[in-house]
Amino acid sequence: MRILLVEDDRMIAEGVRKALRTDGFAVDWVQDGEAALTAVGGEPYDLMLLDLGLPKRDGLDVLKSLRARGNAVPVLIVTARDAVADRVKGLDAGADDYLVKPFDLDELGARMRALIRRHVGRGESLVRHGGLTLDPVGHQVTLDGAPIALSAREFALLEALMARPGAVLSKSQLEEKIYGWGEEIGSNTVEVYIHSLRKKLGADLIRNVRGLGYMVAKDA
Ligand code: CA
């Protein structure tokens, strides 16, 4: 899942980015409101983490422009402003949820996953496909009830494919799900992760659609 982090406090941003990457999110980081609007215009994000007090354009302004353009990306406001009035303004301007600094990084991850789930219309947290179950909250995968150990990136890749059974995702779409800006991408890493997932989960789960990309079939 690809996240846009909008935060001008370098220390907070570094901490959040590190924690989310460990959690398997691909994180792009911008430090002001204008950069945030430019970034969301160019990339399909699964969620935006938005600070309110920002240089150039403040968070509320960013949020209003975003919704005025019809962009429905889930937005989680993360801010030091804990006044009720600010919270209400944020939600009224189209934010999906609200977290007040300082916050717990585990709570942040859990709320993000809940928003993303709601956005794609899955109330239930577990994603199932045949004997395979993926738990986005607990970051666990089981096959016929037995736990399967996956790396953070293998998990992110599998999650992207299982979120839309029957949809073909290209190699670059998959790379977007697992890498943030500035992260080194090797020439064949998606293939390597797919190969590893097939070894762990069976050769039939992830299909190669020649010249187009990869998919998990609709019928399990
Ligand atoms: Ca700030």
From TrEMBL:
One of its GO terms (molecular function) is phosphorelay response regulator activity. It comes from the Bacteria. Residues 124-218 bind DNA. The modification 4-aspartylphosphate is found at D51. Residues 124-218 form the OmpR/PhoB-type domain. It is found in: Cytoplasm. GO terms for cellular component: cytosol; protein-DNA complex. Residues 2-116 form the Response regulatory domain. One of its GO terms (biological process) is regulation of DNA-templated transcription. Keywords: Cytoplasm, DNA-binding, Phosphoprotein, Transcription, Transcription regulation, Two-component regulatory system. This is DNA-binding response regulator. It comes from Caballeronia choica.
